[in-house]
Amino acid sequence: MGIDPGLTRCGLGVVEGQVGRPLRLVDVNVLRTSADRPVAERLVTIEKGIDAWLDEFAPDAVAVERVFARSDSSTIMGTAQASGIAMVAAARRGIPLALHTPSEVKAAVSGSGRAAKAQVGAMVARILRLEAAPKPADAADALALAITHIWRGGAQSRLEAAVAQHERRIAAAGGAR
Question: Domains in the chain and their CATH numbers?
Answer without folding.
Answer: 2-175 (3.30.420.10)
